[in-house]
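An example makes the point: we print one protein in full, the chain in one-letter code, the fold tokenised, without further comment:
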Amino acid sequence: MLDINNVRAGYGAINVLWDVSLNVASGEVTTIVGPNGAGKTTLLRAIMGLVPLERGQIVFGGAPSGGAPSGGAPSGGASLAGVPTWDMARRGIAMVPEGRMIFRDMSIEENLLLGAFAKTRRAGAARQLEEVYALFPLLKERRALPAGTLSGGQAQMLALGRGLMSAPQLMLIDEPSLGLAPVMVQEVFAILERLKAAGRTIVLVEQNTHMALRLADQVYLMQGGKVTFAARAKEVDVEALHDMYFAR
């Protein structure tokens, strides 16, 4: 569903990503782990068009790259190079950012409806809202309250719900457990498991490697702006991964 090939990107004169390549299969959870500063969030921002590409290609949709000519785009895929961030929802991509970034003074329901702001998603907003409320009944109970009244874990649920409101084909989820109490981390990952069971395609950036590996189908380790390890999750030895993670 998503092919990233030899991508370089960064902020002005500071390059962060160095020839990053990875593939995201439809209906799978692809987890990206790595230490702070590895370039994980920058990669998600590059996919969303928030960080311009200096080199390389990001292709969304179509057949896997294994069936494409060398260096070419997947059959039927579309390049995301130059696509503005505001157009990603229409194309079927939603990002749940690190830190949640909810609008605290707006109501919970208003925050959710913003997720269906794209013209192509507005007609189905009412149906999507009911689906989100079915997944997060607490949000329905409190839908008229300001989003700022939510706890950290509840705010993460709101951020996830807002991402689902655009009925995305691909969800990019950045550090959903960040700053949460252990009990809320368990609850958030239980929700992610439900999304996976429903066939959602997810790219998950997460530092809690044990939880991330339990959820993942494919794992990538990033260090210093590069992908240094890739494997199917069921083949990964957690201790060996930690040895690489911490450069032991």
